[in-house]
Specification:
Elements (H helix, E strand, L loop, with lengths): L4 H12 L3 E6 L4 H12 L8 H4 L1 H5 L1 H4 L5 E8 L17 E2 L8 H18 L9 E4 L7 H7 L4 E2 L5 E2 L7 E8 L18 H5 L17 H7 L6 H7 L2 E3 L3 H4 L26 H5 L3 H7 L9 H15 L6 H7 L5 H20 L1
Parallel strand pairs: 3-8
Antiparallel strand pairs: 1-2, 2-7, 4-7, 5-6
Helix pairs in contact: 1-6, 14-16, 15-16
InterPro entries: 4Fe4S_Fe-S-bd, 4Fe4S_Fe_S_CS, QueG, QueG_DUF1730
Cofactor: cob(II)alamin; [4Fe-4S] cluster
Catalytic activity: epoxyqueuosine(34) in tRNA + AH2 = queuosine(34) in tRNA + A + H2O
């Protein structure tokens, strides 16, 4: 008995290294669209104006590409070997989100998706020329609701996808296609009464389960937000200098997640616990060189050093004062302001000792 087209695609996806694959119709439930509209209307997207600019396309795959009939949702595990929170107890080092400790996942995933998309095109059974488009977090695509529809997992109370097999550690990508594919059968799984991800958040960024206020989220503040970080959140950042994994790491489903087997997603040794004083000294050229091939590069030196200075201010180590002093005169006002704050924090700690 010959395999179905879905089985052939799934087999090839696993051969390429994907850890999860599912299929769904190119439609989104009204609940997902409503949740997106409410998120934007409430202003919880902060300064991410791109979310509202193409909200219609984001809420309907056919508005983005009218010819699409099916979506192939793919997941790549990046489950860490070590506890990502262990560096939070090392105040002179920086804590970087797990997904950013290795090569830029956009490049890794997109390359794999393109290979799979070529295979999908070759499966054309109608002779009318199958068309495909691939997406990795760079287009108006609601990847998490689509992954849920394709049975990769479900959107947890922290709003990220939770997988029975991979916990909260899945990178997502999609292939839109003109093929009519059979949707994947339902798989059981839910958060139940668990609220560990909500209580783990250091800035109370979840006004309620399944809802996120990005304006309070450390991941948003350290990556997307361009400008001074609100003072009310700075102490809670501790030494988190790029992203935050607290809500993901708290998920009990992670106990089923095996460490990622993908070589390109193995962490760089120098990003596991980088010294804050070394990072604070980076100029623009040094920053670009050090973070070449890393997703961190996209936020630029100024935003990154701003984050590092806040971590230095939280370190309680007055040995950093001389370095911080040099940055109070930085030509970038955002960096200079963060340095002034860090200096005041350390001097205040010194006075209280």
């Amino acid at each position: 008995m010959s395999k179905s087209i879905e089985d052939r695609i799934a087999d090839h996806a696993r051969h390429l290294g994907f850890d999860a694959i599912g299929f769904c119709d190119a439609t989104l439930p009204e609940e997902a669209r409503t949740r997106l509209r409410q998120f934007v209307e409430d202003g919880r997207h902060g300064t991410m104006s791109w979310m509202e600019q193409r909200i219609d396309q984001r809420g309907d795959p056919k508005a983005l590409w009218p010819e699409v009939r099916s979506v192939i949702s793919l997941g790549l595990s990046y489950a860490p070997k070590a506890d990502p929170a262990e560096t939070l107890d090392q105040p002179d080092t920086g804590t970087i989100s797990v997904y950013a400790r290795h090569r830029d996942y956009h490049d890794v995933l997109k390359g794999m998706l393109k290979h799979l998309a070529q295979f999908v095109v070759r499966q054309d059974v109608g002779g009318d020329g199958t068309q495909v488009k691939v997406f990795v977090d760079t287009a108006p695509v609601m990847e998490k609701p689509l992954a849920e529809q394709a049975q990769l997992g479900w959107q947890g109370k922290h709003t990220n996808v939770v997988s029975r097999d991979h916990g909260s550690w899945l990178l997502l990508g999609e292939i839109y296609t003109t093929l009519d594919l059979t949707p994947s059968p339902p798989r059981a799984g839910s958060c139940g009464s668990c609220t560990r991800c909500l209580t783990a958040c250091p800035t109370d960024a979840f006004p309620r389960p399944y809802a996120l206020d990005a304006r309070r989220c450390i991941a948003y503040l350290t990556i997307e937000h361009d400008g001074p970080i609100p003072v009310e959140f700075r102490k809670s950042m501790d030494n988190r200098i790029y992203g935050c994994d607290d809500c993901l790491n708290a998920c009990p489903w992670n106990r089923f997640a095996a460490t990622s087997r993908h070589m390109k997603l193995q962490p760089r040794a120098d990003l596991m616990a980088p010294r804050l004083d070394d990072l604070a000294r980076l100029d623009d050229a040094g920053f670009r060189s050090f973070f070449s091939g890393s997703p961190i590069k996209r936020i630029g030196r100024n935003r990154f050093v701003r984050n590092v200075l806040i971590a230095l201010g939280n370190s309680r180590n007055t040995d950093h004062l001389a370095l911080i002093e040099t940055l109070t005169g930085d030509e970038n006002p955002m960096v200079a302001e963060a340095a002034e704050w860090a200096r005041a924090e350390l001097l205040g700690n010194e006075d209280n000792e």
